[in-house]
Design brief:
Layout (H helix, E strand, L loop, with lengths): L1 H9 L5 H6 L6 E5 L5 H12 L6 H11 L3 E6 L2 E11 L2 E9 L8 H15 L4 E7 L3 H10 L2 E7 L6 E8 L1
Parallel strand pairs: 4-5
Antiparallel strand pairs: 1-2, 2-3, 3-4, 5-7, 6-7
């Protein structure tokens, strides 16, 4: 196990046996976002979404508006991903999710989504929506695998693109 962890911490692993074991063996901790996390979140966001990345001011606003729905994933004290979920009335929205490329395909994104969905359920929310760009096929597959279904195609939050509005009944 330790060899897998060292490889994953230093650089992406080509050892499929490490990846197959996923985050079950990684000491992933989920905790509320702190303002001191913002620089690292911006790095993950920029690497994940490039031109469509949220700006620093957008994250600051999301934190002000949704502080109780903003969580980070850490491994050995390093922030490796985040999720932001918000509630409006009786509906939950998955606003943003990203995992550092070095730690993808280990179940961390799934764990973050499951965590925020459980927070929604605890608050009596029965429906969750999200938007994912139509060009983000890996994101679409990921959310479908989590149980979300495409409802319709809508304008993306960022100008100039299309997104799928996806829904999950909780």
């Amino acid at each position: 196990m330790w060899a897998c962890l060292r490889i994953l911490m230093d650089f992406p692993s080509n050892d499929d046996s490490c990846r197959e074991r996923g985050s079950e063996e990684l000491p992933v901790q989920l905790r509320p976002f702190l303002p001191s996390d913002l620089d690292r979140i911006m790095e993950i966001e920029g690497a994940s979404f490039k031109a469509e990345a949220y700006s620093r001011s957008q994250f600051e606003k999301l934190y002000r508006d949704q502080a109780d729905g903003f969580y980070v994933a850490e491994i050995f004290g390093e922030t490796v991903g985040y999720v932001i979920g918000s509630i409006s009335g009786d509906v939950g929205d998955l606003d943003s999710l990203a995992v550092d490329r070095r730690f993808r395909d280990l179940g961390i994104g799934r764990r973050l989504v499951e965590f925020i969905l459980e927070r929604f359920r605890e608050k009596g929310i029965q429906t969750c929506f999200l938007r994912v760009r139509t060009t983000n096929q890996s994101g679409v597959r990921f959310y479908k695998g989590m149980g979300f279904q495409i409802v319709k195609t809508v304008e993306a939050l960022e100008p100039g693109g299309q997104a799928y509005l996806m829904k999950m009944n909780l």
